């Protein structure tokens, strides 16, 4: 498959390298010179201009700094994109993705917006997810090629969904890491090494995964039974976390934040409900 990669930062270079490793005829372009040398040495074709890069392949992948940069490069080349598939792996918002999809459709190009759930060293590993949304026909046509970059996960025809998932999943990552850091600090204050605590924490996460799988259909149905643990029980337990953190001189901001969300729901009369009830507070902007 002939593929073009626009943008050769750390991620763009990793994408192009994975395509070359999979045997695809890969054309590369970068605004500033010199970043393509290693790729050209591996067999990539160097395009002197963005126009030449787009013209070289039916599948054009962009991985630039932001959506403004993407449009700055491609808007003058809109007619050259006609009949091609444009895959935008640039980070942005769902709204930007939908606007880009409309722009591409208006110029006769199929559009996929993507989210890379990895750092550059993971590109090419089939265990790594890349999320795509936009033209289902384009996704089906190019799925095998996109699989060179990692496991391609199609999320449907709404071009904004991949970015939406990306934002939500990064939020989960930061929240999880924040909870882990709180745990490392708490146990570390009593001379437990992070390397000793972390394997136990990872094992515990498998139980947390089970909670999410149980709570998801309940959230969709709007029912929140407290059959595993009620919010009253959670409130009592989280007070231990606040106390233990404060007693060791740690930042109690995160435990206090979690405690406050539970307290609001309990004060609103939902103490007998399960933890999934807190989705209603999140949806209501923090009101129980």
Automatic annotation (TrEMBL):
SUPFAM superfamilies: NAD(P)-binding Rossmann-fold domains. The keyword Oxidoreductase applies. The keyword rRNA processing does not apply. Residues 158-283 form the NADPH-dependent reductive aminase-like C-terminal domain. One of its GO terms (molecular function) is NADP binding. Keywords: Oxidoreductase, Signal. It comes from the Bacteria. Residues 1-16 form the signal peptide. Residues 2-151 form the 6-phosphogluconate dehydrogenase NADP-binding domain. It holds the Pfam family NAD_binding_2. InterPro entries: 6PGD_dom2, 6PGDH_NADP-bd, HIBADH-related, HIBADH-related_NP60_sf, NAD(P)-bd_dom_sf, RedAm-like_C. Belongs to the HIBADH-related family. This is 6-phosphogluconate dehydrogenase.
